[in-house]
Amino acid sequence: MKKNYRKILISIFTFVSGLYFFLEYVLPEKIGTFQFGLYHSHISRGFIVVGTMAIGLGVINIVRVHGVALIRTRKGWINSFVLLLGLLVMFTVEGSAFLSSEARVTEWKSLSDLRAYSERVRSDYIKERIPAHARIELLVQHVDKIQASKNDSSSFLRESQDTEEAAKISADYYAALEVLRTRALSLSELYYEREGEGLQAEDDESSFSLQESLKEYTALQAAHTALEQQVRVAAEFADDLSRFHYDNSGIAKSKSLLSNSFLFPLGAAMFSLLAFYIATAAYRSFRIRSAEAFIMMLAAVIVTLGQIPHGPLYVSEDLPLLRLWLLKNLSTPAFRAIYFGAALAGLAMAVRMWLSLEQSPLATEDNE
Amino acid sequence: MEHATPAVLVLMLLFVGPVLYYIWRANKGLEIFIRRIPGIDAVDEAIGRSVEMGRAMSFTSGLTGVTPLLYACLGVLRYIGRRAAVYKARLFVPCSDPEALALTDATLQNAYRTEGRFSSYDPAMIRFLSEEQFAFASGYQGMIHRENVGSAFLFGRFAAESLILAEAGQQVGAIQVAATTSAEQIPFFLTTCDYTLIGEELYAAGAYLSKDPAQTGSLRGQDFAKVVILVLICIGVFQATYSSIDTGKAEVPLVKWITSSWSSVLGDPEPK
Fold first, then answer.
1. Cα(A359)–Cα(A350) distance, rounded to whole angstroms?
2. Co-location of B12 and B101 in the same domain
3. Do β-strands B195-198 and B57-62 pair in parallel, antiparallel, or remain unpaired?
């Protein structure tokens, strides 16, 4: 009985999940004010999370299969050792590079986010009269803190004299930071004066005219714009400087070495094997042993000669047209027929799975 | 987000209707004839050859993710797994998708359990190689050579690596049965493998091997759905021909009907 309940539960879950995706696809985006797929992206993200967790299954399988081969020194254990070593090295280097890259971005963001901070302070002051002087003072302190990382060897924004280019970027960045600090201080002073006047104005409301408000707004606007522009300039230099330090770090170089010197060339080598395999496969298929093989060879010769310049140049000028005719009128309909058949079969298979109609390959016979 | 038009919903029902009807009829006992497919018959031949020669077998679903196609492949794997369990043959299943790996593992476990040979089941039969296309091809090639397989089954979705996989089997003299819905890879399999199942034959393989009424009924239903497509093609050709004679333009009202969105049917303004 327990097994039957399990089967029923799986069938219900499969049906309900499938029904959601079916309705999400066939129903219009909106029916009146009702929107069926409102949370579709959230649900889809859930599936991505499940898929991501499955990567762990692959790693576990590799470690289990090759770990056993290594421990028991089975035939070919050296291959397993190299594979596990490769996995460990790649995992360490890629993981460290990811963390390092995240740290670089965090440092850069702590500067570039000052723009949004400045906009918020301005908006809060103008709309809600929230005191801004102290908040701009905090911004100045933050800039001081960033400047202090000049000699911090672990920082991606440290000063560099390694190369002429790096020295220039460093100089530009720290000069931009200095200008940023000066502008922040000016703005802070401006707020200090305004907030002082504002307190007096509260005592004497008649002196706080619309004209003065407008003047105040314009002055603050100009100071904030100047500050935000400078944040952008400094952030651009910070990006260049932190990227320079990241690219020249040991971990980034190791990652680049593993990818550019091992992974990509090995992938390319595998791909290049195709050229030889195509030649041997072509040799086998071009041997004329039947009428079908003859037709196949004839079509292949026409398509090949029609594709390359030598065909129209030395054989016939009509070869490219003949090639196109073969592809458009014979090959394409055949492909379409295959696609139609496969699509219908896929649809039927999906319906059978959705409605739990067939004997599941995942079930034992006594489960059915 | 892409949404179906009302016509797509109608067509879907037209395609699915016959499938469900014939599944119902098959479950009621309707005998359905399935034509002989040499490629599927060759599965038993290949298993027998491997067992007789004492060589291993390999089965891969290539780059297939968790899709209906994978379930079609697992139907065949279940059959091969059961035979391997009965004949105590060595079987390797290289995988490239971690999600498919979990389903493959469950399928093989249950195949061995069904035959009462669960003690012979070895989790190391299923090997995750890599999600990266050519790393997978390289791992597969190495495994085929090292294990000197006697038969190789390539069922599923393949891309440029198909020829590398098939050539590896060819080099060790394995009997190879391939089945794919990737139309561009069919020529490579045809020239390299002993038997090739084309397109929907892959989906038919499960029905052919299991004789499950739901699957055989579905096959008959698919044939009727193909008749619907054929009728639609004929209507489209007739409308285009008539329109080009009458107005000089090949206008097809059928296409307009298929592409008309829900908003044009319900009269709502187009969603922004």
1. 13
2. no
3. unpaired
